[in-house]
Amino acid sequence: MPLYLCASPNETIAQDKKQRISQAITDVHCDITGAPPEFVHVYFFETEQMRNLEPLTGGASIDEGYLLFGNIRSGRTDQVKLALVSGMRQKVAELLAVGLPEVHMLTRDIDAKWVMEGGDLLPEPGEEAAWLEKHKQRIAAEKA
Amino acid sequence: MIKCISFLQEGQIPEHVVERLGQGIRDIVAANDLGEDVEINWIIVPQGQGWTAGAPSTSSVVTLTTPPIEQSRRVEILHALCDLWTKHTGCQVDEVLATVIPAA
């Protein structure tokens, strides 16, 4: 978490751009939220395939253009969410060399207590540093 | 019906292991008195399409949608899902993202 899904019309995102787009989305997320990058997941799908992902997207879909759908931890302020959306749309539009109106974005709040990553329940927004320290210590202890 | 959607990275988990994961998910649901009706949707993320921290992803994402349940039970289910993955796929615990969400 977060899990960002990028939907595009069939084969319209060149393979060499996907890493750059995923990095850009990761950077925007981490720069704005302070969250560590190791938990930022970005998956690419064709628009048609998004229909199979309804439990995650609530049925969000588009007829044209590109759709970014972000499952993010709840508790982020509206200001933070707006910054995430505008920042990611801008970066993705630049990388795809398309107009901003062609890049749509939605987010969905997921309670941290519903999610386990790395064997630990996710921290609430703002508590990442302490969580990460404790998490790394636990993993190191298990490996010792 | 309990719905499960799971992302697997292409080529990472053999088919026979996926079958074990599916049975394991059903066992977890049954053990938690959530019924026997489980619909599992496996989504294979093709190579080059899945990224974590800007690098090719080796993570699995499993999401279970259930009726409202107590947090203590949710935590047990989450641990069971993570253990299922690490036991049968050989992945590291950091490579599993598990979510149990209440149905809308």
Characterization of the model:
The complex is a heterodimer of chains A (144) and B (104). With 144 residues, chain A is α/β, with parallel strands linked by helices. Helix content of chain A is 40%, strand content 23%. In chain A, the strands form 2 sheets. A 4-stranded mixed sheet of chain A has the order 2-1-3-4, with helices on one face. A two-stranded antiparallel ribbon of chain A has the order 5-6. In chain A, α1 runs antiparallel to α3. Chain B is an alpha/beta fold. Chain B contains 2 helices and 6 strands; from the N terminus they run βαββββαβ. In chain B, the strands form 2 sheets. A 4-stranded mixed sheet of chain B has the order 2-1-5-6, with helices on one face. In chain B, strands 3-4 form a two-stranded antiparallel sheet. At the A-B interface, α1, β2 and β5 of A face β1, β2, β3, β5 and α2 of B.
Topology diagram in text:
The complex is a heterodimer of chains A (144) and B (104).
Chain A: E1 3-8, H1 15-33, E2 41-46, H2 54-57, E3 66-73, H3 78-96, E4 103-110, E5 115-117, E6 120-121, H4 128-143
Parallel strand pairs in A: 1-2, 3-4
Antiparallel strand pairs in A: 1-3, 5-6
Chain B: E1 2-9, H1 15-31, E2 38-45, E3 50-52, E4 55-56, E5 60-66, H2 71-89, E6 96-102
Parallel strand pairs in B: 1-2, 5-6
Antiparallel strand pairs in B: 1-5, 3-4
Helix pairs in contact in B: 1-2
